[in-house]
Amino acid sequence: MAQEDVFKKLVSHCKEYGFVFPSSEIYDGLGAVYDYGQYGVELKNNIKKYWWDSMTLLHENVVGIDSAIFMHPTIWKASGHVDAFNDPLIDNKDSKKRYRADVLIEDHLAKIEEKINKEVAKAAKKFGDAFDEAKFRQTNPRVLEHQAKWDEIHERYKKDMNDSNFEDLRQLILDCEIVCPISGTRNWTDVRQFNLMFSTEMGSTTDGAMKVYLRPETAQGIFVNFLNVQKTGRMKIPFGIAQIGKAFRNEIVARQFIFRMREFEQMEMQFFVRPGEEIEWFKKWKETRLKWHKALGLGDEKYRFHDHEKLAHYANAATDIEFEMPFGFKEVEGIHSRTDFDLSQHEKYSGKKIQYFDPELNKSYTPYVIETSIGVDRMFLSVMAGSYAEETLANGETRVVLRLPAALAPIKLAVLPLVKKDGLPEKAEEIVRALRLDFRCQYDEKDSIGKRYRRQDAIGTPYCITVDHDTLQDNQVTIRFRDTMEQERVPVDRLRDIIAEKVSMRSLLKKVIE
Ligand code: GAP
Fold first, then answer.
1. pLDDT of the residue at 204
2. Which SS3 state, helix, strand or coil, does residue 379 take?
3. Can you tell me the distance from the alpha carbon of 280 to that of 340, in angstroms, rounded to the nearest whole number?
4. What are the residues whose beta carbons fall under 8 Å from the beta carbon of 416, sequence distance 6 or more?
5. Contact predicate 438/449, CB 8 Å
6. What is the pLDDT of residues 494-514, one digit of tens each?
7. Confidence band (pLDDT; 50, 70, 90) for 4?
8. Where does the UniProt annotation place the signal sequence (predicted)?
9. For residues 15 and 112, what is the distance between their CA atoms, to the nearest angstrom?
10. pTM of the prediction?
11. 324 touches ligand 1 (CB under 6 Å)
């Protein structure tokens, strides 16, 4: 199945099974804003717990905070967001539609790449086993022509973006003959910078309302609390502060479902270190974070690092952890070595000294910072994409199964009476009552047992427990395993142990430190 179709199916699966709904749907939705449904919120909470515990339980020197979404507006001046958190925008005068200039060019580059890939696929089909792809790419005149065009556009585009040369960026759009997909014309406005922060007013206008922003990242709440936490927690460098919370960005091109949203959630950790030791810590956190992702068992080959060649002016190293989504490898997490930029800026703008006295070195300094920053929603999407499968069974039937890591699954076990009579429902409910303090259980008695299994497969429930007539005699049940569909007869008293071993957060966290 084409990857595009897989993605479409995943999006409708999320809606159909209560994971993610478009926000305000009965009012036709609100662009790039989504709500999590009854299973989505459980999965999301489990992802957050996995991250939170891995930061604050597995690292003695990492503590958490929960700072407010509203912060003093000068914070965003100090952080650079007021002046530089911009996207280059362009409007089509005929359709009145607004686009990100960089996205128009990137889409154009992707189309050229697609042409190259088509040539390669055609030749591969023609030559069969004898096909040498590398040689074909280096010698085929049509491929070379497309590649030369791609290189030329790409180089000019990168330079324009680096130099903030928006006049040439517009000219590049014209030279590439990019048309508006709605009007089909090339009647473009100038390219303008557009700030991505949402703002609102705090206080009534009569006593002078203050313009405040909805935070575009949670990190600044950590920086401005650095001294509070360090002093009250008697923290010694190196140490980290972790936070999970909402962030808001007025994204212009909001595409790909929950990949790019206007309201989303971040899990960020700022790790404060001695100046000069930051690269060593950057490398350590890179490895630690990749291990955290891989422990989920979605497939090691689905992850890769993308090291940044061009760094923000305040960073001295940066990398992304990318996951193979149905629409290609995409950033899920960023790891950045941010030097002492943020703390120094807040010292400058607040007029308060933000330094750390290092008793071992017997001197004060502004700590350097390694940041790990991951989007909850992107992580959610990567887990869903990595777990979704359509399978053809031996009997020719198909099943949709979410092979979610058991510790993240919204429902851990479903208890199913074989029939709705003869005391089986009562026995099943008794089992639910005995296990519900340990696991999120679901009782289901509607439809055939096969249909009930499929419903649980579709929401990723790792275990189904079937109660039959024999259960009433021998106090044993059939446990069915989601992934293998194998079934085993086990005593009711052993259920807790069998299930706990696989579904506990503890078992997942153990893999991170193995
Ligand atoms: N404090 C650093 C920071 O915010 P970022 O690369 O802009 O860095 C970090 O964002 C992570 O937040 C990204 O890797 C991504 O997972 C998530 N993220 C950023 N913008 C997002 C959006 N519009 N929708 C969903 N997730 C987003």
1. 75
2. helix
3. 16
4. 428, 443, 444, 445, 449, 452, 464, 465, 466, 467
5. no
6. 999 999 988 999 999 999 998
7. confident
8. none
9. 34
10. 0.91
11. no
